[in-house]
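Journal club prep, notes for RB
We'll compare a predicted complex against what the paper describes. Inputs for the guanosine-5'-triphosphate case:
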Amino acid sequence: MTDIDPDAYIQGILAGNRRMIAKTITMIESRLVSHQQAAFNIVEQLLPKTGNSIRLGITGIPGVGKSTFIENIGVFLANKGHNVAVLAVDPSSQRSGGSILGDKTRMEKLSVHKNAFIRPSPTGETLGGVAAKTREIMLVCEAAGFDVILVETVGVGQSETEVASMVDFFLVLMIAGAGDELQGIKKGVLELADGIAINKADANNVTAVEKAKKDLEYAMQLIRPESPNWSTPVMTCSSVTKGGTRGVWETVMAHRETSMQSGEFKQRRRQQSIKWMWALVDDGLKKFFRENEAIGNQIPLVSKQVADGKLSPSVAAKQLLSHL
Ligand SMILES: Nc1nc2c(ncn2[C@@H]2O[C@H](COP(=O)(O)OP(=O)(O)OP(=O)(O)O)[C@@H](O)[C@H]2O)c(=O)[nH]1
Ligand SMILES: [Mg+2]
C-alpha cells in the first residue's frame, strides 16, 4: 500500500466495491502514519457523499442482547431493501480479543446477507482513538451507499458517550430486574438515550418486563428531556419472538421526522462535528505535548516532586505548559 492511488479507492468505494471498502478501513485502522494519511485524504474527498444514512447507536450491559437485537433489526431492514452497515466501539476489544461482534454466530443471517456489512471494533490505545476511527469508517460506509449504520457499544465505561455523539438516535437496551445502578441510571446513560427498549420480553419474563417498563417510565420523568419536542419512550422487544423490532424502528423514524422538522437533526450533526474536531485537537495536543523533548525530559522529575508534595500540581502543570 505504499503507492496509494486515492482515485482508485474513491471510485471503488462509491461503486460499493467491498474490497475497496475493506482496504480503506484497514488503512484507517493502521498504525502507520502513511496509511492513516492516505485514508484521511480518501475520506476527505468522500465527504460530499456522506451523511445520508440513518445513524443508530445501541448500548446496554453485557448480555442484554445487543448483538442478537442487531441481527434481528438488521435482517428486518436488509430485507426491506436497506443497505445496513454494523460497526462497533469496544475499547476493550484489544485486551479481550474482541467481545463485541466477535461472536458472529449472533449475527448468523445478517453476516451473510447481501445488503449487510459487519465490521468489528477497531483497536486503539484510547477510547477517543477507537471512536475517531469508527467515525471515519462510518463515513466510508455512507459513501459506499449504506443507508443504515448500526453502531454497537458495550455499556460499561465512557464508550456510550462517544457513540451517542456520533449517531442520530441512541438506543439503550435494558433487561428487567438487573438492578438500576448496573444498567446505568446513575451513570447518566439514560440521559443520553433517545429511546429505551427493555429486551427479552418473552416467555415467563413478560410480567417482569411490564413492571420494569412502568418503573423506567417513572424514572425518565425525573430526567429533563434534552429536546422540548421529544420525550424518550420506553419500549419492549424480544429477539426470540421478534416482537417489538418494528416498533423500535418506527420510533427511530418518528424521531427523525420530528427532529428534521424542528431543525434539531441538522443542529445535532453540526454540534457533533464541532465536538469531534475539538476531541481531535485535544488528542493531538496531548500527543504533541508528550512527544515534546524538553517537556518529556522534565516529566519524571516534576512528577516526583508533585508526588512528594514538594511542588503543587498547579505550579507543576504551569511549568510544563510553559514549554509549549
Ligand atoms: N430470551 C431471550 N434471550 C435473548 C434475547 N436476546 C438475546 N438473548 C440471549 O441473551 C444472550 C446474550 O445475547 P447477546 O446478543 O450476545 O448480548 P450482547 O448484549 O451482545 O452481549 P455482549 O456482546 O457480550 O455485550 C444470548 O444467549 C442470547 O441468545 C431475547 O430477546 N430473549
Ligand atoms: Mg454483543
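Talking point for the session: The longest helix spans residues 264-291.
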